[in-house]
Every structure is written in structure tokens, then in C-alpha cells.
Design goal:
Blueprint: H1 2-15, H2 18-36, H3 46-79, H4 83-101, H5 103-132, E1 134-145, E2 149-156, E3 162-167, E4 170-180, H6 182-186, E5 192-206, E6 209-214, E7 219-226, H7 229-237, E8 245-251, E9 265-272, E10 277-281
Antiparallel strand pairs: 1-2, 1-9, 2-3, 4-5, 4-8, 5-6, 5-7, 9-10
Helix pairs in contact: 1-5, 2-3, 2-4, 4-5
């Protein structure tokens, strides 16, 4: 699910940008020019080849114009005037023309260049997926909150929902995490977590100013989700000795719940691939 959401987001960003449309338009225009300059006299059936040449020229040129129109629609009248888009289209047209017109001399080098660009694009998409990926570990629905206490419904991703009555005005998940180095994240590693429970805090004022005071209504799962306690303590005690581990820590991010008029406010508790626990409003 997580990979699908991230991939959809990346695809949406690509489709909503004029760059890929201009790039493809340049490729087809270059292919059209290549067909227009192809000689047909030496072919067995020159008339047939000439007809085929101009048909393909019209098809490629039409595709180029159509994709250019899409680029104009996506970028808008102001955005399409960016001179960089013209440069991208021109470079794409030249490379496409050379690759299809001079296949023996330029085809192989340009093919290698295209493959290299495809590999780099793959690494780029992988990096986006790695560093923007997330795992939703629970949902919190706010039933009531009056500043002194909260009534919450905690819905873990792999356990039964629990109704909680907690002191204070802020709730915080108790999550132990093992965060890996960026290289391992890029290669597919995700933050390891142990979701232990929930706690609450109240903002109080004393002689030193405002401070948070933890409530006495903590909730702990009988069987926390994620890695075992022994494994987490092993990483916590040896985080500097274990290669690839950035840190092992306990995260407790505070969130003040909002009560909506017609429906319960809802929040997702998520663990980021590259570390950290966040509480975000559920969309």
C-alpha cells in the first residue's frame, strides 16, 4: 500500500510537469525529420517506400505536435515560455534524429545513453520511494477532549481497537525505533519500530514558566507490534558497533487533539522510512 501511494505520487508529479511531454514531443519531431530525409531511390520499390516514408513522417509529426499541445496545456501560457523547455525539446529532437537517421554511426552510442538515463531515472524514483516512504502503525480517533481529559479510540494496524480515557490535553504514542543509515534506506531498509502504547501530557504553569507534565493514565499493549524488546535493547546498547545503524531511540511526539463538530477528528501515527514518528491528520 505504501509503495503504491508513493509511486502514484511520483507518477502524478511526472505527468503534471511539462518536461516529459516536451521531451517526448522532441523525440517524435526528430523521428519525423529522420523519415523525411531518408532516401528511397535505392530501395526495391521506391514508390512504395516513398509513400511509407511520408505516412510515417505525418504520423510522427502529428504525435510530436499533439504531445507539444499537451505540454502547453500542462504548463500554461506562462510556463511554456520557459526557454529551458525549448532546449530540452531541441536536444531530444537532435538525439532522436541522429539515432534513427544514422543508426550505424550514432544508434549504439545514443542507445547506451538512453539506457544510462533510464537507469539513473530508476535510481531517482527508488530514492524518492525510499526517503518518502512511511508505515502507518495506528489511527487515533478523538471522541472528546475538554482540556483536562481525552476520550480516544486507538486503532492499531494489526490489533483490535481500544478505547482510552487519558488525562491532559496532549496524547503521544510511545514508539521505540531503530533508524538505519541513508545508504541502507536507499537500498530498501525501513525503520524498525516497537509500538508500545500511548501516554498523555498536560501543559502546566509554575514559577519556571510553562512545562509539560505527564499524566498517570498511560496505556501499554500486552503484545506490542514490531520488533521484540530484546532485539531493540540489543540495538540500543550497541548502536555504535552495529554497521548501518544510525540510532536507536524512543519517540514520543505530542499532539493536541481537535474536536470537530460533525465527526471525530482522526490522526495517523506513521513511522518514516528514514526515521522518526509523526502524527498527521487523517485525510
Amino acid at each position: 500500500m505504501e509503495a503504491t501511494v508513493v509511486t502514484s505520487h511520483v507518477v502524478s508529479m511526472i505527468v503534471s510537469s511539462p518536461v516529459p511531454w516536451v521531451l517526448l514531443a522532441g523525440v517524435f519531431v526528430g523521428a519525423a525529420l529522420s523519415r523525411a530525409t531518408t532516401r528511397t531511390r535505392h530501395r526495391r520499390d521506391p514508390e512504395r517506400e516513398r509513400t511509407r516514408k511520408w505516412i510515417l513522417f505525418c504520423v510522427y509529426l502529428s504525435l510530436g505536435i499533439g504531445l507539444g499541445a499537451v505540454a502547453v496545456f500542462v504548463a500554461g501560457s506562462a510556463g511554456i515560455a520557459d526557454p529551458r523547455l525549448g532546449v530540452i525539446a531541441a536536444v531530444a529532437a537532435v538525439l532522436s534524429f541522429c539515432a534513427t537517421r544514422f543508426k550505424k554511426a550514432m544508434g549504439i552510442p545514443i542507445l547506451v545513453l538512453v539506457i544510462a538515463c533510464a537507469v539513473l531515472l530508476g535510481f531517482f524514483l527508488q530514492s524518492i520511494r525510499a526517503f518518502t516512504g512511511e508505515t502507518t502503525i495506528a489511527e487515533v480517533r478523538v471522541i472528546s477532549a475538554d482540556g483536562d481529559s481525552m476520550r480516544l479510540e486507538l486503532i492499531p494496524s494489526d490489533a483490535e481497537p481500544v478505547l482510552l480515557t487519558m488525562e491532559g490535553e496532549y496524547f503521544a504514542p510511545i514508539v521505540k525505533v531503530v533508524i538505519f543509515d541513508d545508504l541502507l534506506v536507499f537500498l530498501g531498509a525501513k525503520t524498525w519500530y516497537r509500538f508500545e502504547g500511548m501516554t498523555s501530557f498536560k501543559l502546566v504553569k509554575d514559577d519556571a514558566g510553562f512545562r509539560f507534565r505527564q499524566g498517570s493514565t498511560d496505556f501499554y499493549f500486552r503484545r506490542p507490534a514490531g520488533i521484540s524488546e530484546d532485539l531493540w535493547r540489543l540495538f540500543e546498547a550497541n548502536e555504535k558497533r552495529i554497521p548501518g545503524v544510525k540510532t536507536a531511540q524512543v519517540d514520543m511526539n505530542l499532539k493536541k487533539p481537535q474536536v470537530q463538530a460533525r465527526e471525530f477528528a482522526a490522526y495517523d501515527i506513521i513511522v518514516r522510512n528514514n526515521g522518526g514518528v509523526e502524527i498527521v491528520p487523517r485525510s
